[in-house]
Write a structure and sequence with these properties.
4 helices, single chain, alpha+beta, elongated, 6-stranded mixed sheet
Length: 197
Amino acid sequence: MAKPMSNKPITTPSAENIAAAARAVKGKGLPPVHLWNPEFCGDLDMRIARDGTWFYLGTPIGRPGLVRLFSTILRRDGDDYFLVTPVEKVGITVDDAPFVAVDFEAQGAGREQALTFETNVGDFATAGPENPIRVVRDPETGEPSPYVHVRANLEALIDRKSFYRLVEIGSHFEGWFGLWSGGGFFKVIPSDEMMAE
């Protein structure tokens, strides 16, 4: 769900300052944003669109390396999203999920299958009990929106081409059509509804 922008004046540092702070603390792997608890500095005019495009001051951020850097300091607290460094915490708007799963690789089959997803910002996540897949259906149109958990309460919207490929390798289990991965079965649609379509 989108986080509304505050009407109060933005007194936060610029995106450039946040990026500099992120570079300063970045080492191997992802920064430990879950351990950082700086004071909230306000909202930054930054937005992640449903298609995974990052915007700053209404303009798309065209540097993939910068987007990747910002993605490593992203944290979700409740329904709100923040960029967090050891000294600053700023709110940003996320239209849907912060990431998009743009591809996946399937290994094995049936209950032994493992689905590893790649996101638009270079993260990889293997679906399973720690990284579940969920599907939300629009109550009016029935259109599915599939998601996979990537890390630390952050999800990726699975893109349409990948979802179509997933449907091709799905299976029925206990009255549901869904996907096996990492020892778990993830429901997509009731089997009887699928048969009726």
